Amino acid sequence: MAHFPIYTLDSAPEQSKPGLNGLAQAFGMVPNIAGAIAGSPKLINGLVGVFQQVHGGSFTEAQVQTVLLTNAVTNGSTWPVAFHSFLALKEGLSEADVQAIRERRLPQDAKLAALSRLARTLIEKRGRVDEHDIASFTEAGFDQALVLDVILVVAASTMTNYTASVAQPPLEELFQPYAWKA
What's the rounded Cα separation, in Å, for the pair 102 and 178? Predict the structure, then answer.
């Protein structure tokens, strides 16, 4: 497997530094996945733009983490599963709901289950959801327009999930308790 460097704020390409700095401020550190993504100024800056839309959007942080964790599991991407397990718990998801998602099951909370189901369905069906998939989401209390916001979250996580699968960044010690295997 090719080796991809994990850049820091000091070693990153100049055009990657603003985006990497923004993620460092958001997380209080430079996650290894961000350090890997920084090898491409276009990808890191694109991710930051999408990241800002996702985290300033229509969903609570717990709901965002539900979708991001579901996406990582569905894509079989180990680094993001550990990272989003940590963040989901930090944002108030129950241990049972986090574990359910990690085991490819739905959370007990009905709204989180609807989000998780739609995210997984979007990935598995490559965006070709049907009326039943959308109805299942809206019946949980979400507006139909929020289907499009779930697509935005899926797009953001696709960048990190695919990069993690290609670059295979090491898992930070902080996230080791949440390590996961596909």
Answer: 10
Evaluate whether the domain defined by 61-155 bears CATH number 3.20.80.10: no
**What is the C-alpha separation between 146 and 92, in angstroms, rounded?**
22
Name the pLDDT band for 1 (thresholds 50, 70, 90). low
Q: What share of the chain is helix, strand, coil (3-state, %, to 5)?
A: 65, 0, 35
- The Cα 121–Cα 133 span in angstroms is 8
Q: At how many degrees (to 10) do helices 61-74 and 110-124 cross?
A: 40
Q: Where are the domains of the chain?
A: 61-155
Spatial distance between the Cα atoms of 57 and 17, rounded to a whole number of angstroms: 25
Percentage, residues of the chain above pLDDT 70: 99
Whether 75 and 165 have beta carbons less than 8 Å apart is answered as yes
pLDDT digits (tens, 9 = 90+) for 4-22: 999 999 999 999 999 999 8
Judged against a pLDDT cut of 70, whether residue 2 lies above it is answered with no
Q: Please state, in angstroms and rounded to a whole number, the distance separating the CA atoms of residues 146 and 36.
A: 31
What lies within 8 Å, CB to CB, of 173 at 6+ separation is: none
